[in-house]
Design brief:
The chain is built from twelve helices and four strands; from the N terminus they run H-H-H-H-H-H-H-H-E-H-H-H-E-H-E-E. It has 294 residues and is mainly alpha-helical. The chain has two domains: 129 residues, no CATH class; 111 residues, no CATH class. Strands 1-2-4-3 form a four-stranded mixed β-sheet. A hairpin with an 8-residue loop joins strand 3 and strand 4. The longest helix is centred in the first third of the chain and has 25 residues.
Length: 294
């Protein structure tokens, strides 16, 4: 009951908040209905394809550190096997041991989810603490085994040496290969100069513009990929052209349109932009436009 209440209280608070701002229907539409009816079918892959993508991204992200990922994976499998044997041996569920099972369940469930829907590098972040946890556990486990008692004497020092080597190596070889925050601030200052405090802006894809200019978007449609534009069009009288007409009536002085590769109505969106806006020359940020003076 404590667990159920612990989940129910924040859920009720969230539902109450969305109801108070008259957005409860939108919450359901975009977190449940859209994902179930559109996003899931659009992004569906076979388990084999998803596993191959997961491995490809892991190799690209971790590179030589992939050895530590493998160490963590072996530790997870070994620890999970121990928990299964303990459950078979001990019989009835022991509440005092429940936390050990929970430690296995969390990464296992997330990995299962990744095999259903994995996108890219950021999806690996929730696994980082478990890689360290189970990799460290495996080192201690091997050091305490009969065949590893000799290793136990050097294992702590070896672990420290490996970690320090990694830290020093990464610190010395790290290079910034993209725009820094300072670079972005300098570039977006050119946008801030042409905008008065009350002038509107529409951004699709390059949402860092909104963050660094501290401005709200013209509408909620910051990313219309994977069927979102079709989903919105079906629920708007006049379809997607009506959405564009509504945006045009607001006359945003600056628009930024990028990442339209998976947008079904990208041609209409770009046609609307090209008919009313001229491009701003901003290295590293193509697709930023200033409204044409009539």
């Amino acid at each position: 009951m404590k667990v159920v209440l612990g989940a129910a209280v924040p859920l009720f608070a969230a539902l109450l908040y969305f109801y108070s701002i008259r957005a409860l229907a939108d919450l359901w539409t975009w977190t449940v209905a859209y994902n179930l009816k559109v996003y899931a079918p659009e992004t569906a892959r076979g388990v084999g394809q998803t596993a191959a993508l997961l491995w490809k991204v892991a190799v690209r992200v971790f590179r030589w550190d992939l050895a530590l990922v493998v160490l963590g994976a072996v530790g997870l499998i070994t620890f999970a096997a121990e928990r299964v044997r303990a459950r078979i041996k001990d019989g009835p569920f022991e509440a005092s041991e429940a936390f050990r099972d929970a430690i296995v369940l969390a990464p296992s469930i997330y990995l299962a989810f990744c095999l259903i829907n994995f996108q890219s590098g950021p999806d690996l972040l929730p696994l980082f603490p478990f890689i360290g946890m189970f990799g460290g556990w495996l080192i201690v486990k091997v050091g305490g085994s009969p065949i590893g008692r000799e290793l136990a004497r050097i294992a702590p020092a070896a672990a420290v040496v490996v970690l320090l080597t990694l830290i020093v190596f990464r610190s010395m070889t790290y290079r910034v290969d993209s725009l820094t925050l300072q670079d972005q601030q300098k570039q977006f200052a050119a946008i801030a100069e042409v905008l008065s405090p009350n002038e509107r802006i529409y951004v699709h894809g390059t949402v860092e513009i909104l963050v660094l200019l501290n401005k709200p978007n013209l509408n909620p449609y910051i990313f219309l990929d994977r069927g979102k534009d079709e989903w919105i069009a079906k629920r708007t009288d006049g379809g997607f052209l009506a959405v564009l007409d509504e945006m045009d009536s607001a006359s945003p002085k600056v628009v930024a349109v990028s990442r339209t590769g998976k947008v079904a109505h990208s041609a209409e969106l770009r046609q609307w932009v090209n008919a009313r806006y001229d491009p701003l020359d901003m290295p590293g940020y193509p697709g930023i436009y200033l409204r044409r003076q009539r």
